[in-house]
Amino acid sequence: MMSLHALPAWAALPVAALILAGSLLALTGALGLLRFKSFYERVHAPTLGSTLGMGCILLASMLYFSVGQTRPVVHEILIGLFITITTPVTLLLLVQATLYRDRQEGRDPLDADNRPEA
Amino acid sequence: MSAAILAFALVTGQILLALAMVAAAYRILRGPRAQDRVLGMDALYLNAMLLLLVFGIGSGTTLYFEAALAIGLLGFVSTVAMAKFLMRGEVIE
Amino acid sequence: MSRWLPSPLVSLGLLALWLLLNQSLSPGHLLLGSVLSLLGPLMLRRLDVAPLKLRRPAAIPRLLGVFIADMVRSNFAVARVILFDQADRRPGFVRIPLRLRSRYGLAALACIITATPGTSWVSYDPATGMLVIHVLDLSEGDDWSALIERRYVGLLVEIFE
Q1: Does the beta-carbon distance from B80 to A53 stay under 8 Å?
Q2: Inter-residue contact B56 to A63 (CB < 8 Å)
Q3: Which of A113, B34, B39, B69 falls between 20 and 30 A from A85, CA-CA?
């Protein structure tokens, strides 16, 4: 356990800024999930949180624990590595599934005169 | 002073991430189609993982790290399974 | 390579992951991690994965740098699209003929394109080499085919083929 007061100001302020930036990016991505009109646009939204948003929060965590415990704490890299590899795979599979379902229903989004509206 | 700013950032970050989870949950409930719900669930998992990491900073233990890693793993496996199901579940009609 | 160490790169990666996960360099973890990283590739060999040949590994850091720069830039671009929805935004599909044929290279390109906000991989036809991606905002009139070719495909061909 360590308390918030254990951190010197030069480390606490970047940690605070990184947490705010990361969570703002994640929220922006989730808002995109609500605002975009078609599925193919919505796929882009969560990647905000899974790339730079996650990066900011992981950096904040690494900085906080490394300074607070005066030893390098870098196992957050594992989460970063893992999410960076897996998110594209899930989104790819999901887009493939959607393409397949759209074609099953006879409206191929790749036909130029048949753009999906919903 | 800096501790107060950090505490404020932690609370604000948790609120923002909780709002992001609400938005993802809304997409799960609203749909309109199955793939939108799966996408919403993937986003829900991701934001839950980030929220756990921020909790970890707030409580000062690295215990939350393991929980976040487990959520990340589970989110990947379950989303892949559901995407696979969407692709193959309807083949036999 | 040899019988007991078929893929030294995978073994080394597994050992690094194990030590990172346990946050220690103690002899016990080194020993346990070494055993695991020797057993992992033996199981991998059963799956009959095509061997990975890197022609020029030296280009990997450059590819990573390009990817991170593009990722950060497009994060802000997509955030702007979400927060201030421009009326003239035009999403759409783009067809790109690819000269990249290596399966590992294609997998890396798919991950890069999908992980970058604003573009996602939709489909690829191995017979014709035609790739389809979805772009969130086409209104800026960039030549996406030339962009992907210049920024990624050149480096990927250099690394994998």
Answers
A1: no
A2: no
A3: B34
- Residue B37 domain boundaries: 2-88
Q: How far apart are CA A57 and CA B68, in angstroms?
A: 12
Q: How many domains does one find in chain B?
A: 1
Mutate to test the interface with C, among A52, A102, A103 (most CBs of C within 10 A): A52
Residues C99 and C149 occupy one common structural domain: yes
Q: Does B46 touch chain A (CB under 8 A)?
A: yes
State the amino acid at position A102 in one-letter form. Answer: D
Measure the CA–CA gap between A58 and A60, rounded to whole angstroms: 5
This model of the complex carries an ipTM of 0.84
Tens of pLDDT, residue by residue over C22-68, are: 887 888 888 988 888 888 888 877 777 777 777 777 888 888 898 89
Which residue of chain A is at minimal alpha-carbon distance from C81?
Answer: A32
Q: E-assigned strands of chain C? A: 92-97, 119-125, 130-135
| Chain A to chain C Cβ contacts (< 8 Å) | 95
Q: Is residue C51 part of a domain?
A: no
